[in-house]
Predict the 3D structure of the following.
Amino acid sequence: GWAGEGPGAGGKNQHVCHAAARLEMGSLWEEFNRLGTEMIVTKAGRRMFPTFQVKLSGLDPLADYVLLMDFIPLDDKRYRWGWGSGGRGPDLGVLSPSLPRRYAFHSSSWLAAGRAEPAAPGRVHFHPDSPAKGAQWMRQIVSFDKLKLTNNLLDDNGHIILNSMHRYQPRFHVVFVDPRRDSERFAHQNFKSFSFPETQFMAVTAYQNHRITQLKIASNPFAKGFRDGDPEP
Amino acid sequence: GWAGEGPGAGGKNQHVCHAAARLEMGSLWEEFNRLGTEMIVTKAGRRMFPTFQVKLSGLDPLADYVLLMDFIPLDDKRYRWGWGSGGRGPDLGVLSPSLPRRYAFHSSSWLAAGRAEPAAPGRVHFHPDSPAKGAQWMRQIVSFDKLKLTNNLLDDNGHIILNSMHRYQPRFHVVFVDPRRDSERFAHQNFKSFSFPETQFMAVTAYQNHRITQLKIASNPFAKGFRDGDPEP
DNA sequence: CCCTTTTCACCTAGGTGGTAAGAT
DNA sequence: ATCTTACCACCTAGGTGAAAAGGG
């Protein structure tokens, strides 16, 4: 689907105000989202699957743009996977109101388990082709397949730092490279942001929901070695 | 070694006149050059080995530069590998004066065999990180490992088109991206070119000199499968 | 006869989840 | 008990020269 930004798009530079982004592989994202998407985080950094990819339109073909992503916590909670009674202490086993009921399967589900860890510095990932002309960005699908997620707070590889067992919303930003001298003063007008709710996920160090594991194995080419039984072209 | 450009460096823009490039893996290039370097060309495109890599210095850290390569014919001859008497017709089996005597081994050597084919359009290969700031280019070795050579005159993959059995000199160009309005008028001042004689080579569809083959196998990691006998770290 | 094309086994390089051990 | 780490077999993706087949 198409996702504009949250607040009204007023006061934006002409070079970004008509920018639009369509999420690619939308049906796959939605299939994961129905189950409750999980993304592995490792010390060395792990790619996302599905990969975040968008098709852009409405850019000035001759202007320069920088494309980047960041990840914002969806709430201030820490989660655990299980069945409420597991408890040590004051775990109430209360489903977070923001987690739809359908997240529960087989007697296990995501349960709020306290307040979130203090958030990491909040890194961003620049698309490695940045900067480039609008025409170049619009020519084909823009893929963030070099982006990696890590749980290492001391990471020095430039990866995105996330807390495991916390929920995140990926955000995508189109930034017009303003050639004007004091362009910093217009910075707030020169970018446009996109959030696709179907791309939100839980950061984990190991998959919790077995249906997520199976969908990853079924849809990620690199996990073909774990597929068994009938081939499905 | 270091290689400046041919004609006097006079009249160059300040952003390029101090630029310098050191060829990396120089001793390997020289080892190949002593035997007579050959580079495979294929219809689909083949990488060079050794890869053309340079360490840059003397750029303006804050200015934008484009880096690119092209290949110029070293002479107007066509060559064949063999021993002079093979001949059909007027092959004289005369060693080209520009080919050192050491090119001959084992009763076989490169022989001039007529005039060169008409040259292809003369494509260039832009380093995929272009454009980038001088600081970025100087930070580490710049590698042209995405560059591919083809003998397909109709190639539409943007590869470098060469004639097999012809000799070429790789050239490397540093181009300052001039922000001035009518910068085209200064184009001749805004670049600096480098030629390393030890990187010249013969384009071939299959290796002719067996010593070249052995040196490729010994030094290219992707050819490790053809190494036999003692490992050499 | 000489050169080119195609196919192949064998590599490098790196992305998967499983598994068992480790940490708290 | 729950989460994390390290290692592994098994993939994708693509760069090698050898060998045999193809073409003029």
